[in-house]
Structures are given as structure tokens and as C-alpha cells.
């Protein structure tokens, strides 16, 4: 886990870099991305994070999420990680970004400006089991209801940005 993470200011301007675990121990603001892949049934592909992830292990989340490397474009990083985690390649479109902060029981923190990408494909995932333990498809309505009923099963960033995902997805219809 010696990956360097891009540190940013409140305007998402790069201000430095730091080792990934140090970023999550300190809670410093950094750049991230989240990918949401939909199929022809208008269902979202969710991944269950591998159980031994450094935080949120075993929780359900969006299709793919990570951090771009230093000097790496967000869109290229999203393409790369989607293939590495889920074995999928499809055209991605940047839709919006949001800022959030979350702390976890193990003392780690996420403080991110998270860039959200949408894609559409019917490819069946080929999971990298070091990253994802499982996958499933749900409509956004089913997902919203499930999060309301069982919020502890989902990652904080998914719960935070879901309403904006729904808003942007409705614009596409």
C-alpha cells in the first residue's frame, strides 16, 4: 500500500501527495473517484468490498472506487480500476463530484473530493477477489429502499452521493 495519493484543496487543486495509508490515518483532503455502471435493465452494478480491505470490508458499494495516482487523469484511473477490480471496460462519462468526510471504527478516515463517473454495459463482471467479494444488480429504487432498511451494509460514500446519482440518472432517461 505504498501508493501515493493526490492531496487537494477545497477547490480540488493539487497541493501535494502523500502515501495512501498516511492519508487515511490523518484524514487529509484528497482526490478520489467512484464509478457507477448500469445495465440495459437500468440496474446499478454493485460490488461487495473484499472483507480484508483496510476499511469498509464486506460492505456493499458502487461498482468501483479508488484514487488516481499522482499525475494520472481521473478518467484514465477510473478506466484502469474498473478493469482491475471488476474486469469490465466500457465508456465512462464524468457526471459530478462531491466532497465528504467519514471516520471508521478502525481509526481510519476518508476525506475526499470524489469524482463520479457513469457507464453502461451488460458485461458480466470478472471479480478481482482481492478487491471485491461479490456483486449484484439493483435498480436505484431498490437500492434506496435497502439502504433505508439496512444502512450498515453500505459504504458511507455511496449513501452520501446516491441522491445525486439518482438525480443525474433521471436526466439521462
Instruction: Give the C-level CATH assignment.
Output: Alpha Beta
Spatial gap, N to C terminus: 40 Å
Query: Radius of gyration over alpha carbons?
Result: 15 Å
How many domains? 1
Low-confidence runs: none
- Number of alpha- plus pi-helical segments: 4
CATH architecture: Alpha-Beta Complex
Using DSSP, what is the number of strands? 9
Q: What portion of residues belong to β-strands?
A: 35-45%
Report the major sheet.
4 strands, mixed
Shape: globular
CATH superfamily: Nucleoside Triphosphate Pyrophosphohydrolase
What do the pLDDT scores average to? 94
- Could you name the CATH topology? Nucleoside Triphosphate Pyrophosphohydrolase
Structural category is alpha+beta
Helix content: 25-40%
Strand order of the largest sheet: 6-3-8-7
The helix/strand order is EEHEEEEHEEEHH
Describe the structure in your own words.
This protein is of the alpha+beta class and 173 residues long. The chain has one domain: Nucleoside Triphosphate Pyrophosphohydrolase (Alpha-Beta Complex). 27% of the residues lie in helices and 37% in strands. The chain has helices at residues 20-26, 74-86, 140-149, 156-172; strands at 4-8, 14-19, 30-38, 43-49, 60-61, 64-66, 92-103, 109-120, 132-139. Strands 6-3-8-7 form a four-stranded mixed β-sheet, with helices on both faces. Strands 5-4-9 form a three-stranded antiparallel β-sheet. Strand 1 (4-8) and strand 2 form a beta hairpin. It is globular, with a radius of gyration of 15 Å. The N and C termini lie far apart (40 Å). 30% of the residues are buried.
